[in-house]
Amino acid sequence: MLDSEDFDLTEAWKATWERNCPALYKGLPCINSQPPGFDTRRKVWVTLNRIRTNTGKCAHSLHQWGKADSAACDCGAEEQTIQHIVTECPRRKYTGSLDDFLYATENVIRYIEELDLDI
Known about the structure:
By secondary structure, the protein is mainly α.
């Protein structure tokens, strides 16, 4: 298959992605172009992708890695996860649609630039 002259790796990848893609990521753009937000400053781009992947330097992760004494959020919640920061935290939650993170809307870019955490 891979050694066939007619094999197109990009098309094969896209077909596999369509069959197996988790629902959360169905809205991501095609791999033939740069994802939304790619042209932002590096700090914004990194934070945007950490939020998109639900992985970053939040208290929960830092505590798991032995780099923080507590997983708690400074708002009083037991755990400060990326999801908590973006969807629940009374100090920091994003008030728009979570799809905005997939499309890197102006509101999301502003939210990230004003976020008081380096996640």
